UniProtKB/TrEMBL annotation, chain A:
It is found in: Cell membrane. Pfam families: BPD_transp_1, OppC_N. Residues 74-262 form the ABC transmembrane type-1 domain. One of its GO terms (biological process) is transmembrane transport. This is Peptide/nickel transport system permease protein. The keyword Glycosyltransferase does not apply. Its main location: membrane. It comes from Billgrantia gudaonensis.
Automatic annotation (TrEMBL), chain B:
It comes from Billgrantia gudaonensis. This is Peptide/nickel transport system permease protein. Residues 99-314 form the ABC transmembrane type-1 domain. It holds the Pfam family BPD_transp_1_N. It is a multi-pass membrane protein. The keyword Isomerase does not apply.
Length: 278, 325
């Protein structure tokens, strides 16, 4: 069976892909459907959903268009989710590869370092980092990456440990390939599938983290994000529950879709495991 | 004797980690843009030059880096976390006053999520190919993907605003003057919503872990033996599979519990629960960085303590593990 056929066998994964496509379309269409800044006050505040044309989700406490905020927020969530995961991979993959390939003291040292980061409570660390670096897209991406790389390092290390004495690696060594070449050309390509699966789940976690940070007021003050929308409407939850409701549904659907896609990728890339599990 | 040595080695490790966190905090203050004294003071202090000078002197900010580090580390080693000028109280007193509330909330949520998670996970494992099993897993996936703070807000809307069943804010009814049992009941009523919303996310994790662990255990030889002996399915599930599946769950649950402190920051913020999570939110809003770093240090210490406890429980529960770390 081909990769796509196996992926498509998982109905949840297909649903995930569809939801994700809708969210990406929202992000891509935002500048065309709502070219104005989502921060602009365009109508009277507290306009309920479906009451006025052009404001399907109403307006917030300041009279800003909720639908516009939701669409612009999609872009921010996806951007921060993907970029911070990439940065986390850039930290975790080399660390794990070096630790697993060389072993010994290097491995010990790097793993103690990884354990240290795993012990610190993730979310508290992210809060402290963003608060001290001042909230901006860059500081949020860095903070999320810094708290999410340890699982990557551990996974890559475990893969390298099990692969480094395989015959094809020994063969590469015999023909005189250097360590760097063996790591990058021989072993790393064989560890890609579990890394891809983990990465898709990490994007989901990163989006949750970003929303929680901006909910607490640690979002970039220049970009509209879903977490900010929920946080800003928190104090008026009794009068206008919908202001918090819709951005929350958007986060929920995005994270759910990414998790479903991750599971589908897992099934498609590790067909043997998938059969054992079901 | 084994346990004494084990605890000792764990404590040494904990001290090293905490020391590293202190250094980490120090580096953070140095890396932050602007004057370290202003950061320690928060924005309020920035206008008061005399106060800034006091801080510079106290932390030796005009001296070489290693002297500064020494001042910082020795301060925290003697449990001096500095003074919160925003709240007009020593940081340590502020944190200690809020700690019991957080322990009550996270403790309740931990027991709740682990109990319900193991129950739901074992039900799902026993019904692998049935719709009821799939339903449990779908719900687990849904809760796993739901932002904690959003569930908390929606719970307030539903159970406090519309149904008026449960209080939405605080830890006890202000001015009611309850004592004894009435006080416990009052706190319990306030605890239901925060503890349940905090537990949902972790329940989802424990459900998935339990199911995976049970399915793995069910493929072992001793299960075949039990079946061959003619034991009923229920007995096999409970006595043979679940018991063996529980051990890895305890370890993983201990690791996950650290994240519960992080989750508490969000739930306490939404429900105005007077714990260190809420205190962290207040420190954030007031840019009280010294308090923020103090809470960060304490939450890490809590996580380490929790990991040591689960480690010991694990070793007590599984007599096969004899070797020291």
């Amino acid at each position: 069976m081909s990769f796509f056929a196996r992926f498509a066998q998982n109905r949840g994964a297909l649903i995930g892909v569809i939801i994700l496509a809708v969210i990406i379309a929202m992000a891509a269409l935002a500048p065309f459907l709502y070219p104005e800044s989502p921060w602009r006050m365009v109508q009277r505040p507290f306009l309920p959903p479906l009451e006025m044309d052009g404001f399907p989700l109403g307006t917030d406490t300041m009279g800003r268009n909720v639908a516009a905020g939701l669409m612009h927020g999609a872009w921010v969530s996806l951007l921060i989710g993907f970029v911070s995961t990439s940065v986390a991979l850039l930290i975790g993959v080399p660390l794990g590869a070096v630790a697993g390939y060389y072993g010994g003291l290097i491995d010990d040292g790097l793993m103690r370092f990884t354990e240290f980061f795993q012990t610190i409570p993730n979310f508290a660390l992210a809060i402290v980092l963003v608060a001290i670096m001042q909230p901006s897209v860059t500081s949020i991406v860095l903070a999320i990456a810094l708290v999410s790389w340890p699982p990557v390092a551990r996974l890559v290390r475990a893969e390298f440990l099990s692969l480094r004495h395989r015959e094809y690696v020994e063969a590469a060594r015999l023909v005189g390939q250097g360590n760097a070449t063996i790591i990058l050309r021989q072993i790393l390509p064989n560890t890609l599938s579990p890394i891809i699966v983990l990465a898709s789940l990490m994007v989901a976690t990163a989006i949750l983290l970003e929303s929680a940070l901006s909910f607490l007021g640690l979002g970039d003050p220049n970009v509209m994000s879903w977490g900010y929308m929920i946080g800003a409407a928190r104090t008026v939850i009794r009068q206008a529950w919908w202001l918090s409701f819709f951005p929350g549904v958007a986060i929920l659907l995005t994270v759910l879709a990414l998790n479903l896609v991750g599971e589908g990728l897992d099934d498609a890339l590790n067909p043997k495991l998938a059969r054992e599990r079901s | 004797m084994l346990y004494a040595r084990l605890i000792a080695s764990r404590l040494v490790k904990a001290v090293i980690v905490l020391f590293l966190i202190i250094i980490f905090n120090f580096v953070l203050i140095q890396l932050a843009p602007g004057d370290p004294a202003a950061i320690l003071a928060g924005e309020a202090g920035a206008t008061d030059e005399e106060f800034l000078n006091q801080l510079r002197e106290r932390f030796g900010l005009d001296q070489p880096m290693y002297v500064q580090l020494w001042h910082y580390v020795s301060g925290i080693a003697t449990l001096d976390f500095g003074f919160s000028y925003r709240q007009q109280m020593p940081v340590l007193d502020l944190i200690l006053a809020r700690l019991p509330a957080t322990l009550l909330l996270t403790g309740t949520a931990f027991v709740l999520s682990l109990g319900l998670g193991i129950l739901a996970g074992s039900l799902a494992a026993a019904r692998v190919k049935k719709p009821s099993g799939s339903l449990i897993m779908a719900l687990a996936l849904l809760f796993y993907a739901t932002p904690l703070f959003w569930v908390a807000l929606m719970a307030v809307v539903l159970f406090s605003v519309y149904l008026e069943w449960l209080p939405a804010y605080g830890m006890l009814t202000v001015g009611a003057g309850h004592t004894g049992l009435a006080l416990a009941l009052d706190v319990g009523k306030h605890l239901i919503l925060p503890a349940t919303t905090l537990a949902l996310f972790f329940m989802a994790i424990y459900t998935r872990m339990t199911r995976a662990s049970m399915i793995e255990a069910s493929q072992q030889d001793y299960v075949k033996t039990a079946r061959a002996k003619g034991l009923s399915n229920g007995v096999i599930q409970r006595r043979h599979i679940l018991r063996n599946a529980l051990l890895p769950i305890i370890t993983l649950a201990g690791l996950q519990a650290g994240q519960m402190v992080g989750g508490a920051i969000l739930t306490e913020t939404v429900f105005a629960w007077p714990g260190i999570g809420r205190l962290m939110f207040e420190a954030l809003q007031q840019r009280d960085y010294n308090l923020l770093l103090g809470i960060f240090f304490f939450s890490a210490a809590l996580v380490i303590l929790f990991n040591i406890v689960t480690d010991l429980v694990y070793r007590l529960a599984d007599p096969r593990i004899k070797e020291a770390p």
